[in-house]
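Dear V.,

Thank you for sending over the compound details. I've combined the ligand you provided, guanosine-5'-triphosphate, with the protein sequence from our construct and run the structure prediction for the complex. I'm sharing the raw inputs here so there's no ambiguity about protonation or stereochemistry in the SMILES, which I know was a concern on your side last time.
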Amino acid sequence: MKNLFRFICCGNVDDGKSTLIGRLLLDTGNVKKDQLADALKASKRNGSDKIELAMLLDGLLAEREQQITIDVAHRYFDYSDIRFHILDCPGHVQYTKNMAIAAAAADSGIVVIDAVKGIHDQTRQHINICSLFQLKNICVCLTKSDLLEGAQDKIAALEKEVRVLLDTYHFNYKIIPVSAVTGYNVEKVLETLVDFAHASAEDRGAQTSVIMHMQSSKLYHGSRYYYGKVMAHEPITGDHLAVYPSGCYVTISNTENLPYGCFQIHENIDISQGDCIANCPIIVSNIIKHKTIWFDKISDDMLLKHGTRVVRVKHFTDSVIELDNDIFFNNIEDIKQNGFGIFIDNVTKKTIGCCVFTENKNHQKTEVSGITYWINTSDKEKENEQLNLLRGKFSITPIIFDLSLMEKTVQKNTRDILAVLLAAIEVINSQGQNVIVIGTQGIIPQGNHIKVLTVL
Amino acid sequence: MTTHLDVLENESIELIRDVCYTNDCSKIVIFYSIGKDSSVLLHLFKKAFYPFPIPVRFMHIDTGWKFREMYEFRDRIAKEVDLIVYKNPACLNPFTDGPRYTDVMKTEALKQAVDLYDVKIAFGGSRRDEEKSRAKERMVSVRNEYHKWDPRNQNPEIPPLYNTFYTDKTSLRVFPLSNWTELDIWEYIKREQIEVVPLYFAKERRVQKTQTGMYIATENETGELLKVRFRTLGCYPLTGAIVSEAETLDEIIAELKKTEYTERITRVIDYDTESSMEKKKTDGYF
Ligand SMILES: Nc1nc2c(ncn2[C@@H]2O[C@H](COP(=O)(O)OP(=O)(O)OP(=O)(O)O)[C@@H](O)[C@H]2O)c(=O)[nH]1
Ligand SMILES: [Mg+2]
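Below is the predicted structure of the protein with guanosine-5'-triphosphate bound, written out as structure tokens.
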């Protein structure tokens, strides 16, 4: 029973990223004898009599010849109760695109800074990209500290500089002086990664959004099976989900013994390829605010792929894109997995950019008019916990809802509350009223669009 | 709780469906090598489309020099799935034709089969932990019109937004097991009770020592009887056996946790020069 945790190792060219990861692998006993022999052979050919640890990662011929990382190396190892998937990035400006794609896939990051040379423009660029892709936890390694033996003040000064820089972001970070050559503090880095892994597993556990983009639906012996790509959680039997773009609701009737991302529903409704189902608000739009990282030249004829939709780009500016069809997304700051797309050149079919959706408003707004209150627990702490979850989900002021609105038994678990919430919205919508729900007595928001109807 | 095996399985299934649902399935094949990774790949394909049958064909590039047990296993699988077997009519011999054997019977054969059956997308069971240049390859990897891989200029890839498009001039290789390790494969085989070729389990077998000190299988009576198993399977003259006591899945898993070498050392083809795998791949080898 291991948790999978993905982290990148990034930072400026030659600052010592691959060497540090090589040291990490070596010290945790994750380098096999034949790999070590191979790296030693390559080091010798490059004129070194000792092993260059970076050769454990830099596996391409060109990388070994130029002693530089060109593309991401993927490595895997088990430590504590965690399966680590490391993505060792290139630092060279020319290969920033390869760093960016790794950052998009990672949970957290190590930023390596050469303690002698200090912060470089490229270090800042990588930190920006980490922030763009919402990496929460950053471990800054001030490496090659062996070269600064005795110059503690220099390290302290750099540490201060790093703090000033990182405090302008929202990271949870830790700064550790290390040496990949002597192994100094490598254990600390490992401990930090373990902490990060646990934190990100907790985050994932607290997440309750169900979002799926549909891949296909097919009839088999009279029953219909739906297949999709799971962006956040997979639905479970009984989940009540909104369908985009149709706007109707469906209830999951079966997921047992079906493969990942496959389900059946009670209703006789067509959910086609490219549609989306969710238990949380989704932005539906063809005009989208974004930030894009380009990997290649921008093209006149471009496609955007997001979820299971591929749509043509009609108009592009640095801040807004216009598509020829709607997509179903979230802002990256709200739900990372559903918050970006890729640009594909329609002629060469190459991936030429990654487009991050940010600061978009949900225009399908449901104005709040009726508010009721219900939380089925006597435990204050649990109640707050559930409310925080709900609030995180809807990124709106607290909403409250009333059990009497629907004939449904509701259990204490949050997923059911969400189901009820959606059901409530549907019920009240069908009665011609607009509603959004959540809250406890103590935190009922004031405002003219909010009215407290019932407090149980 | 979701374990790393669940995550890996889910990611693989999603990639498989993504590629197959967005492309013409008649242009897709699954390269089936009869080995453990192929067995897992087959299992994942069955799962991905359940309860429907697998919508794409399997393809085995035969050399005529596989183990007898592999052929038996393959012929049983062929009753379950749509399997194409292709063999280069050149029919070279690994004992007498040297390095040319692999080039012609594997790399060339593969290109011929891809052209013959008009394949634009080929799935394979390779993993990044197998070899240092594979560790750098995309899950959806582009090949040019000569089937060549350009490691220095790969298409940027951001899972799970795979770019599953190809052009007249390109084709794709897709590796759903990229992020799996050898240990994951065995733990998954155990968890899912997947059938594999019996050669993976230790048994007394007749072997002979090669010049490089490797044990290869032989049917010759003069061969030594040793308790061995195979960590990888390929052409028997090019596949090294390891001395082992691991007769069960649990024993294989325990053995792997302690092993000091990667599975690569049992393959003659990769072990001759420092970056022979990368060179073979840039030439069009799978
Ligand atoms: N003295 C000392 N040298 C180091 C240390 N870490 C790395 N180096 C040296 O720094 C040089 C660059 O190391 P790499 O690990 O290749 O750097 P990198 O950041 O991976 O470089 P790119 O991936 O090409 O951006 C090598 O010559 C290493 O030997 C360290 O802790 N101490
Ligand atoms: Mg490097």
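A first observation: Residues A 13-19, 52, 54, 68-69, 90-92, 143-144, 146-147, 179-181 surround guanosine-5'-triphosphate (ligand 1) (CB under 6 Å).

Warm regards,
I. M.
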